[in-house]
């Protein structure tokens, strides 16, 4: 039973920071990890992804503000979010992918940016 556990969501004022963490358990390794988000009435979008070889990709809307880190030993993916904007408000979902076993989703964590 592969489990993906997310933490770090919450409420913050514009300009603030949050750190989202995602951990995969009951799996030996992952090949990629990423964060997606979905705001009410909007399509789910990729925020950032960390693939093999230390490669990372970011949505244009978060470049320069967010950073994703994957720890291959701990099997965790962390999303550091700085200079948060109200437009960042959404439910954030972690996805862990294994070439062998497929991908697994976390249940989502709410991020709210407001005054």
Descriptive keywords:
single chain, mainly beta, globular
Summarize the structure in words.
It is a single chain. The chain has 115 residues and is mostly beta strands. Helix content is 0%, strand content 54%. It contains no helices and eleven strands. Strands 2, 4, 5, 6, 9, 10 and 11 form a seven-stranded mixed beta sheet that branches. A hairpin with a 6-residue loop joins strand 4 and strand 5. The N and C termini lie far apart (40 Å).
Q: Briefly, what is this?
A:
By secondary structure, the protein is an all-beta fold. It is built from no helices and 11 strands.
Uncertain runs: none
Distance linking N and C termini: 40 Å
Oligomer: single chain
Largest sheet entry: 7 strands, mixed
- How much beta, percentage-wise? over 45%
Tally of helical segments: 0
Average residue-wise pLDDT? 95
How do the helices and strands follow one another from N- to C-terminus?
Answer: EEEEEEEEEEE
Q: Percentage of helical residues? A: under 10%
- The count of DSSP E runs of length 2 or more, i.e. the number of strands, is 11
What is the structural class? Answer: mainly beta
Taking all Cα atoms into account, the compactness measure Rg is 13 Å
Molecular shape = globular
SSE layout:
Elements: E1 3-7, E2 10-12, E3 18-25, E4 32-38, E5 45-50, E6 56-58, E7 66-71, E8 76-81, E9 90-98, E10 102-105, E11 109-113
Parallel strand pairs: 2-11
Antiparallel strand pairs: 1-3, 3-8, 4-5, 4-9, 5-6, 7-8, 9-10, 9-11
